[in-house]
Structure of Succinate--CoA ligase [ADP-forming] subunit alpha:
Amino acid sequence: MAIFLTEKSRVLVQGITGTEGTRHTRRMVAAGTNIVAGVTPGKGGRNVDGIPVFDTCADAVRATGADVTVVFVPPRFAKAAVLEAVDAGLGLAVVLTEGIPVHDTAEFWAYARGTGNRTRIIGPNCPGLISPGQSNAGIIPADITKRGRIGLVSKSGTLTYQMMYELRDFGFSTCVGIGGDPIVGTTHIDCLQAFENDPETEAIVMIGEIGGDAEERAAAYIAEHVSKPVVGYVAGFTAPEGKTMGHAGAIVSGSSGTALAKQEALEAVGVRVGRTPSETAALMRETLLAR
């Protein structure tokens, strides 16, 4: 099994005819993803490597039964693209776009909530997710790990890749890059809950970063609801106060949102926290070998 994305997922790509959309569509197809359609307004009737292109998500869903969308759309058009995906009834929208205004994200997130949460949003500003050996929705490299028993949820794209590589001999059930913007559609807690309920996942790696209180809230959730071992890493131990570091949500003000505060919250509920990504991988390796 896997969470959110499996070999049965029928994927469409919004923005498939753009440079990035075309390039990453080919990478996803090479990884075994079942891409059934593309959507670019005004370009319906065309195809990309034999994949039919439609003018709207609704047309694509009616014709192909797509249930997942990957959004390769520029920031100013991204809100409209996600709202369209929600209206089309797609069950998962993977929003890769960086630089979407926070108020746009808040609007499409609230819209998805208001329609009964029928569309799960991952991102924005994220690398997507991969269930190795099954499906890949986004830009995560497909050849750095194999199918296995670790679940990974991460705010950072590059740290997602590093963790996948360092633990490639164990493999992963699903790796989810949730993005680092102040508002994201799927949280650490959402993924922790899904991994807890997934019989294939035996242990969980959670990668956070400075800023906000998502990791503290995840720690409280772990204490109450997660029985599987969790290993964590918090990026930003050396970050200067008051500066945004990489992600829009990664900013520390005073004592709020520091890496140390997050580490302490996680360790207080039994999560082993590494000071570096490699140390975190070593802790997970020890955890799995001891089971």
User: Anything to note?
Assistant: The chain has a mean pLDDT of 93. Residues 75-87 form the longest helix (13 residues). The chain has two domains: 11-122, 144-289. DSSP finds nine helices and 14 strands in the chain.
